[in-house]
Amino acid sequence: MKKPKNKEEIEISDYLNLLIAIGKMGGIRRPVFSTTSELGRTVGISQQSASRKLTKLENSNYIVRNYKQRGNTIKITPIGVAALEHVFTDLWMILSAEGREISEKIVIKGTVCTGMGEGAYYMSQKEYLNQFASLLEFEPYPGTLNLQLLEDSSLRNFERLLRSPSKFIKEFTKEGRRFGKVFVWPTYLLIGNRKISAALIHPDRTHHNNQIEIIAKEHIKTTYEIKDGDELELILQ
Amino acid sequence: MKKPKNKEEIEISDYLNLLIAIGKMGGIRRPVFSTTSELGRTVGISQQSASRKLTKLENSNYIVRNYKQRGNTIKITPIGVAALEHVFTDLWMILSAEGREISEKIVIKGTVCTGMGEGAYYMSQKEYLNQFASLLEFEPYPGTLNLQLLEDSSLRNFERLLRSPSKFIKEFTKEGRRFGKVFVWPTYLLIGNRKISAALIHPDRTHHNNQIEIIAKEHIKTTYEIKDGDELELILQ
DNA sequence: ATTACTATTCTACGAGTAT
DNA sequence: TATACTCGTAGAATAGTAA
Asked: Which of A17, A166, B30, B139 could form a disulfide with A183 if both were Cys (CB 3.0 to 4.6 A apart)?
């Protein structure tokens, strides 16, 4: 029988080592098998403490686990991943800040331009659209907004973004044609003083030029009266 | 092995929030001014706790600070930055892995050299030997193999290792002489295509030079016909 | 083997306060 | 104001052990 989940507030840093240890086993992508003794040994605490901490992580919905005969299968939940990503972002921000100012947010700035129409073609495939919808908080408009990156800092942030954690949609084949994997980073698009939920998408983590593609719920250009050459900012979450 | 000192050990995760808060103020690049009350408020602890934690961070060389009339100027030291980077790298690794096994091998490379014979002296104490045996999968030979680290990457990995979770053997007193705490990291020693279970031992998490000490089941030099100057690799688990 | 309970030890927190 | 001490206490960690 499932135990009742009493929502509990925990301080992530008290559990960071344990979560990282589980993550290193692969617990972010799939359930991994371990025991409280092994985990305790790994992070330098007792079996009992590991047990207690696992219980707390479970009650706070940071992990789910199934007890097997000799141990647990443990998987970090999206909530747990989000907590880890939050720490990651903080560290990224302060470790990569150059010069004096630490900006509260990581920003990618660019000017609106017109792409080759490929974005619209791909985004018109319902397999892509459905997957994007399941990853994001919105159903994207079947087209992309292209931004040309100008400043070095934006390019660097983009490169860094490519190496940072992301969701992605799976490749699929349709009518003999292969549609590849696409990585997705949820962001906000700053338009005037409005903050629009959006996502930066990119097919490849290892290559890029200075142009990026963005999807959002609406067709940005018409909905917000944006035209080529306008400068927009993307705020990473 | 150097005579172990009674130096203050801290667990980075207990101080992560505070270090991140200081980092957000810019404390990685320059000394920043703050008070214990302000820092406490920022991370949700009391002024007293912030004060105590700052003192510990200082004693562990994670920060330096100067007391002014109404607060401190605080700067995170390279050691502190390395600790933050270590957490960052861990998170980066596990959050960016795509369905694959996490298997980034961390390697420390060095050339065999002859130590001062202290290692053999310490390792000849049965209290040490017994404790090592209980922590490791083997009963160590009562002596150490010394490696001189040459490459920057090896030194960096060693520094990182020092800040990572470890087992340790407890200090003890014998015939009026104090034998200190020693930290232990199980590793593998690569000799040709053989992978020997070994352990890196070090008396101090906060200080090091470019020489490391390794223990294994056998006397490495005679068993594997190793001589001074030979280059060996240590693979961290 | 495990997990995780209870009892006990111990550490870390914050209140009060000296400087 | 500051920092940082002492100290009572809450809760975290571990030992012992049941299931």
From this structure: A166
For A12-82, give the CATH class. Answer: mainly alpha
Tens digits of residue pLDDT in A64-101: 998 877 888 999 988 888 888 888 888 888 887 654 34
Domain residue extents for chain B: 12-96, 106-236
Tokens representing A86? 């939050």
Model confidence, pTM = 0.63
Closest chain B C-alpha to A4 CA, distance in angstroms: 29
Which pLDDT tens digit goes with each residue over B77-108? 888 888 888 888 888 778 876 544 444 567 89
The CA–C1' separation of B59 and C15, in angstroms, is 25
Q: What residues contact A176, with CB distance under 8 A and at least 6 apart? A: none
> B101 at the A interface (CB within 8 A)?
yes
Q: A-chain residues within 8 Å CB-CB of B30?
A: 100
- Determine what percent of chain A is predicted with pLDDT higher than 90: 30
Give the list of residues 6+ apart from residue B229 with CB closer than 8 angstroms, or none: B111, B112, B113
pLDDT tens-digit map of B10-30: 889 999 999 999 998 889 988
Q: Provide, as residue numbers in chain B, all residues whose Cβ is less than 8 Å from the Cβ of A23.
A: 90-91, 94-95, 102
